[in-house]
Amino acid sequence: MPTLKDIADLVGVSISTASRVVRNDTSRHINPETKAKVWEAVRQLNYTPNESARHLVNKQKVEKKQTKQIGCIIQTARLNDDHPYYSPIITAFTKKILESGYSLGFMHTSDELKDEALLHRCLHDIQVDGIIIVGEVGPEIVDYLLKVDELALIGICTNGTEITMVDYDRIHAAKSAVDHLISQGHQSIGFVGGPGHTSELNSEERFQGFKFAMYDAGIPLNKEWVIDTRWEIDRSYESIMERLKRADLERPTAIFSASDQLAIPAMRAVIENQLRIPEDIAFISMDNIDFAQYTTPPLSSVHVPKVEIGTTAASTLLDMLNGEQPQLSKVLLPHRLIVRQSSVFTRN
């Protein structure tokens, strides 16, 4: 088995420096470049940080035994028990694995796992059989996980093509929402959303679906009303308020939002400008979180089967662990358009 001395020799540092990096000892400053080199050596040599872990790895090389534990890594700032989109997914996933005799070994955000010592401990000390990745957690974490032997991975709305995925068709779902607005006669439609995995708006599938619908209908995009909020609720409200107050800017007759959480503050901005929904500006959105039906007026939205996504992800991961599922596949669950008063103007 590799030792700290092997790591130190490979990097060209002292054993004590290598040890401090692996133990996340911050008592002395270590150059970030040196730390990165040490962690690269850890991965390259498949080093495990303690005797019991090394002993376990030796046993696993003879016969891999399941620990009946699953890890969860979730997108930055999304680890929240009452998050209206992610909470039902994680709850359903956890319920299914518990019913199957497994437990949740850890749950961390991608921000927390930028601490490579913590990431290493999660994988080598806790010894999970598989991991569910929820959201865009960053390519460095995904690449790290892919290098771990016999670790089953499944993703929901995450980056990487080398991971089994359970999701829904965001492009088609977004297009169906915009098609609904077009069917209502709208020819000037704004967009509110955020970037995709490349941190650019064009990489986001819901924005792609919006553009496809507009192009198919021969409707030009108004760049002034394509709003990248960086997925921040406050930016949605502030961006709409700023544009509506501009005398030189013609407002759209409808807005498509990539999520209900961005649509709700945008609707508030419209109402605070003494405009009516949907008579002056219609709204349709994505996700169909519980709050959507209680806005004023109720928000039209594409229903995403969040509970079914979580349950299917758990079932697929369990099948992978039992050798009953291909290691690489993509499962897309059906979405459903829910039309409410925010997008349909009924004349009396």
TrEMBL record:
InterPro entries: HTH_LacI, LacI/GalR-like_sensor, Lambda_DNA-bd_dom_sf, Peripla_BP_I. Pfam families: LacI, Peripla_BP_3. PROSITE patterns: HTH_LACI_1, HTH_LACI_2. Keywords: DNA-binding, Transcription, Transcription regulation. Residues 2-58 form the HTH lacI-type domain. It comes from the Bacteria. CDD domains: HTH_LacI, PBP1_GalR. GO terms for molecular function: DNA binding. PANTHER family: HTH-TYPE TRANSCRIPTIONAL REGULATOR GALS, LACI-RELATED TRANSCRIPTIONAL REPRESSOR. This is LacI family DNA-binding transcriptional regulator. It comes from Paenibacillus germinis. The lineage of its organism: Bacteria, Bacillati, Bacillota, Bacilli, Bacillales.
